[in-house]
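Design request, tokens follow.
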């Protein structure tokens, strides 16, 4: 009878099991060190053209990426309708929006305000050509007035409500998509007047502003907030908030903030800053966005 030979190396089945466990362990260990940061979207209301919006906001988004360690995909839009559709469907994580868009987004999805400009209030402005014979808001009765979009807050919703009270709605509204388009049509004289906002007019070239004259200005309200969808973890919302507030502590950061109209940023509050707007009764002037997905 042959003498049994000692086994050389591990039993094949046991060796195979150990190898699998080792590989899985290494994969999990590697994932814990190299897993990519979660991606978030940053949507910006289309007050200007997509190219201009991207030029102003891309450096700001890149700074937030570095400061928070989270990748941000900047989303810009051709129309307010595109922006509103994604907003009310909760398709964007962070968004910079007008005050009434925030109220819409809060009602639809529970968006939370993070920061806003603390250096000035938001005023709607009604402009005419510098040489226009119109001297008062009453002179606009029966005239064509340009607005960016039906749901632009300061430049349209609030302004149209005030015009309805003053000239009893006897004017024609023409919607041109962006604040910049309104200003240019006003200069060309294709409309009697155009509605915009103090913050967007301040971004225009001096020669553009010189061709226009402010006929009327609405009372000031809290300016546009940077908001977050409630699905974003509280720690990440706070990281973005702190990163924006920190920008105000150096010249480079302040330059980025100026380009996105967040000068001297402060923490935003629904109750303090935006809940009072619900008393204005602007619902009847809102054009409802359909809850549809892309």
């Amino acid at each position: 009878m042959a003498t049994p030979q000692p086994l050389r190396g591990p039993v094949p089945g046991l060796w195979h099991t150990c190898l699998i466990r080792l590989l899985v362990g290494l994969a999990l260990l590697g994932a814990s060190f190299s897993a990519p940061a979660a991606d978030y979207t940053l949507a910006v209301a289309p007050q200007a053209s997509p190219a201009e919006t991207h030029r102003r906001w891309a450096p700001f988004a890149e700074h937030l990426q570095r400061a928070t360690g989270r990748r941000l995909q900047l989303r810009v839009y051709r129309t307010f309708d595109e922006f509103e559709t994604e907003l009310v469907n909760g398709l964007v994580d962070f968004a910079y929006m007008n005050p009434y868009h925030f109220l819409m987004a809060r009602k639809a999805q529970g968006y939370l305000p993070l920061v806003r400009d603390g250096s000035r209030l938001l005023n709607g402005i009604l402009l005419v050509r510098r040489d226009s014979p119109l001297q008062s808001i009453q002179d606009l009765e029966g005239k064509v007035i340009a607005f960016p979009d039906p749901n632009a807050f300061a430049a349209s919703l609030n302004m149209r409500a005030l015009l309805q009270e003053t000239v009893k709605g006897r004017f024609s509204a023409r919607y041109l998509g962006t604040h910049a388009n309104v200003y240019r049509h006003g200069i060309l004289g294709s409309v009697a007047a155009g509605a915009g906002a103090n913050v967007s007019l301040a971004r225009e070239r001096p020669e553009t502003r010189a061709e226009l004259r402010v006929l009327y200005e609405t009372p000031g309200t809290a300016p546009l907030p940077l908001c977050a969808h409630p699905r974003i973890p509280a720690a990440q919302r706070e990281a973005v908030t702190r990163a924006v507030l920190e920008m105000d502590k150096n010249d480079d950061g302040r330059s980025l903030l100026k380009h996105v109209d967040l000068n001297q940023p402060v923490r935003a509050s629904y109750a303090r800053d935006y809940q009072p707007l619900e008393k204005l009764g602007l619902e009847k002037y809102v054009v409802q966005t359909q809850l549809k997905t892309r």
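Comment from the thread starter after seeing the answer: thanks! The CA atoms of residues 121 and 222 lie 5 Å apart.
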